[in-house]
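Input.
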Amino acid sequence: MRQLLHWTVAVPLLALVALALTWGRELDVVPVVLVALLLAGAVLAAVHHAEVVAHRVGEPFGSLVLAVAVTVIEVGLIVMLTVSGGEETATLARDTVFAAFMLTTTGIVGISLLVGARRYGVTLFNAEGSGAALATVATLATLSLVLPTFTTSQPGPEFSPGQLAFAALASLALYVAFVLTQTVRHRDFFLPVAQHGQQDGEDEHAAPPSARAALTSLGLLVVGLLAVVGLAKVESPAIESAVAAAGFPHSFVGVVIAVLVLAPETLAAVRAARRGRIQTSLNLAYGSAIASIGLTIPAIALSSVWLDGPLLLGLGPTQMVLLVLTVVVSVLTVVPGRATRLQGSVHLVLLAAFVFLAINP
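Output.
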């Protein structure tokens, strides 16, 4: 009974109940605020349960669990909003995936490096693993988000059906290859590296939770993530109204969705950075970006069979400049295998530029 009353158990269950009560209904101001509070609580609970599962299975599987779980929910959210939306949702997949790319490669990476560097001076991580992940991210982003702008088989920044099928299969193949590399063939490339000045035992954990506790947390993680994406869908009319009232372009809705979906991973990455586990933070960041593109594009390509309207995936000039600059800066950050506050600050400035230009294109 005491376990049921713990907030990490109660909040996801309450959020799921709230989802059932509010689904498909128009909400007044008070219910919208209550749903927002439960949404934030579900995010925090999801982070807790993800860390329990990660502690049980170890790295890099723990990072992979959260990245895949959150991305599957992201795909569901994009598909649901695309089905229920109109012409304005033609770019929703592109806007959300690109926002996820920028938030992970500049936001999560930047704040993790900054937090780690504030404590240890110079952060250390595995350049082989992070470099391989970054190369995968860059390839996925280019194939799925840049090429549609330059292809000529279809008018506009849109793939032809055959090109979309190729991009989907290539994205899925790259994702599977990366997962096999991360978890089987070269798992050691993605394990945490001890920081300079880190005290003996500082990074040690308590005994791993029991299998029963880990399975319980896995179930509650799924419940929490379902609640997060469901309540985000419930909040979407209020989000769209707020975006319109603020005078922001409709594409900013994709940014808000990405922020909500990536909140659990961001919190988990910051916690790992505080413990000196910078590689875990980078695993979460780049793993989330890979999963976001590598799973979303195939799912959207499959759903386009029954979805009406065009599927615009190609980025505009401003977005492509940001993508190229982010990849170049990320390469310079990752290759040495060490970073300072400066690298973290550069990544966060790129994030600020992305958000500003998303508001004021």
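Residues 50 and 66 are 6 Å apart (CA to CA).
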